[in-house]
Amino acid sequence: MSDRTPHYLLNGLAGWRAAFLDNTVLARSGTCLALLSMPGALRPLTDAAGSFGGLQAAIGVALDRQDRVYILDGKACVIKRFDPCHSQFVTLPCVGGTGSQPRQFSGPRGLAISCSDDIYVADTGNRRIQIFSIRGLALRCIWEPLHVTLGASGVAVRKALPIKQALPSGTDCQATITWPTGTWQPWDVVISRCNRVYISDYANGLIHAFDANGCWQAAFTGVGPALPQLVKPTRLGLDSEGRIYIVQENQSYIVVLDADGNFAGKVDKPDQIAGHFCPTAVAVDVNGDLCLSDCVTRRTYFYQPAGEGRWCPFRCCGSSGIFAAALMFDRSGHPLYADGGQRVCQLVPPAVYQTKGTYYSEALDSKTYRSVWHRVTLAGRVPPGTAVKVDTFTAESLKPIDEIQSLDESRWGTNQIATNMPNGKWDCLVLSTPGRYLWLRLTLSGDGSATPALEQAKVYYPRASTLQYMPAVYRQDPAQGDFLDRFLSLFDTIRNHTSEQITDVAKYFDPKATPATRSHDFLSWLAGWLGLSLRSNWPIARRRELVRQAHRLYALRGTREGMCLHIELYAGLRPRILEQFRLRRWLVVNHSRLGDCTTVFGKSIMNRLQIGLNSRIGSFELLDHGDPNLDFFNAYAYQFLVVLPRWPGATEGDRQALQQIIDLAKPAFTLGRLEFQKPRFRVGIQGFLGVDTVISRYPSGVIEGQGSLGYDTVLGSPGQAPAQKPLRIGRDSRLGQNAILN
């Protein structure tokens, strides 16, 4: 059956069209249907004695690049780091303490660590963000309080100024500080891979976005279809696609925005707990699944993207009775919970799976009355000890999924079982009665140690067998006709497979699509048709492009433009070609002027051995070609130099490949030479703008045996960074080094 036959494709890219999942999960970011792993147990990060280093209110949790756990204690206003060697949390020195001075906190709520190992703290009570470096715990900067104005033209921010309330004279109390209406109240902070920072503004119902340099960029309201502006946003989550997940105080749903702040969807409560759901924390695991912690049911719910801005709940973990005030995942995919009190725990799932799980599809519509559905094909992996059962149900009218699940087992058809998948593929014939709609049920089973992994399913319709071309007498008896139809489908499958290969043969002649693997390399064969010789060590993308441009290369072969194109296709860089006859600057009587553009021609130009003229030993060369009387013209004749910047990662193999290209593309009577140029600008020695010249940093020192004085190094103090000179415009300012345009 060809893929051009009408069919429904179910996979991670097109969507699985899942109506209900029972003990099954769309793993690997929705690309694979598998059995659900058994929920594990919560393991405290410290010993049974509760040695949490005096935690009072663990409300923030973060991980650095070394997978060390950091906890924000909102009551004690300190940050603690977990020491796995001593199995306890240790307070970071010189960071924290109650107050409004730098390094002090007042009611902190959010904690995050960037990919450059900087600690961001949402100092909620002081209306600011403080940033510390993990190395040395230096205070990098403080993002001061912002005053937010929402107008018709959008959101505007400016620095907020505190209001000091005057006290009666003679009192010993200090003046209290209040903030004007509209001052932001940062609650939580998350950081993307490119160091873009998102902060939830509890007071104004906004999500603020900052760039890596701390410059305010935009504020997002979260307004979506039938959804108002955010109200009291608290916790934030961020996935690998840059989507922002927002928890609001006392709201039973999660708002999802894309990286630019546009509304992307809504994650609602599971149906079974309608009216009893209040998420307190949100995070995204390594598979791209959404994780919500609920303070009402004290459970953790996992959701999967279902496309079109929807998320589908597929499992929950709640045996422990813990909910999270802050939640995140470690690099192994295990959730870390900070419960807002004195516990920090990790959920460690065991490496076992459910023994049985079921997938129900949505109604697949053929749009044809009494359509005869043809077959189901599966692609994936079925390990030993596991199996996949395929069942189908057809009807002429739509039915709710609850009715489909409650059907008697006798009403399901097909009932075929796949216990292995040779070459990763398996198929079976649909044996259900004709009907416009079809529901697919896949039952995955195993012994608990492994799971089937289905990457794709296809449901073909209508059935097009050879029977329709046979005399009607073979279809008179319905029972006999059905048997013959199913019997001929075996041969139809073989025939269709051959027809599909014939139909798709055109892709073998497309350089961009033809196979180029070691086991099936048709690209080299295709290049052989055109007389091209491709080396197996060349990157596949470059080989494909050389074959695709072969017609242009042959039309330009032997020309300067053709050689430039050939080299550019391989290296991705435009070369410079110097034809060496242009170096002739001979001084010819009545045709030249003395100066730097003229050279006196002499015997030393060719150094040819000539008795009586140039025969001193050590000063001549033995040349067996040319005529001494024509050396004036032969010097630099039929020679050229190809200059190419050395790109990062260029190897000696690339040099050899490029020299082969030069030998192939040049005229046969010429001599070509390749020269890789390093990016060094040396006045009077070497300096081709755009070829070997880049603006770079000033050398910082010399290491013995690795540099030459006066060439690429300067003397510096050993083990010390060069002193930062003051920026003086026009004298020592360098863009990208000590000057930033802002």
What does this structure look like?
By secondary structure, the protein is mainly β. Among the domains are: 7-37 and 354-464, Galactose-binding domain-like (Jelly Rolls, Sandwich), CATH 2.60.120.260; 45-162 and 184-348, 6 Propeller (Neuraminidase). Strands 1, 3, 4, 35, 38 and 40 form a six-stranded antiparallel β-sheet that branches. A hairpin with a 5-residue loop joins strand 31 (335-338) and strand 32 (344-348). The protein is flat, with a radius of gyration of 37 Å.
Please tag this protein with its features:
Jelly Rolls, single chain, Neuraminidase, mainly beta
Please write out the topology.
Layout (H helix, E strand, L loop, with lengths): L6 E5 L6 E5 L1 E3 H4 L1 E4 L5 E4 L13 E6 L5 E5 L4 E6 L4 E9 L13 E4 L4 E6 L4 E6 L5 E5 L2 E6 L2 E6 L3 E2 L12 E2 L7 E6 L5 E5 L4 E5 L5 E5 L12 E6 L5 E5 L5 E4 L5 E5 L11 E6 L5 E5 L4 E9 L2 E8 L8 E4 L5 E4 L5 E5 L7 E6 L2 E2 L9 E7 L5 E9 L5 H5 L7 E6 L6 E5 L7 E9 L7 E8 L17 H26 L18 H8 L10 H9 L1 H6 L4 H12 L4 E4 L51 H4 L4 E7 L6 H14 L5 E7 L65
Parallel strand pairs: 42-43
Antiparallel strand pairs: 1-40, 2-33, 3-4, 4-40, 5-32, 6-7, 7-8, 8-9, 10-11, 11-12, 12-13, 14-15, 16-17, 18-19, 19-20, 20-21, 22-23, 23-24, 24-25, 26-27, 27-28, 28-29, 30-31, 31-32, 33-39, 34-39, 35-38, 35-40, 36-37, 36-39, 41-42
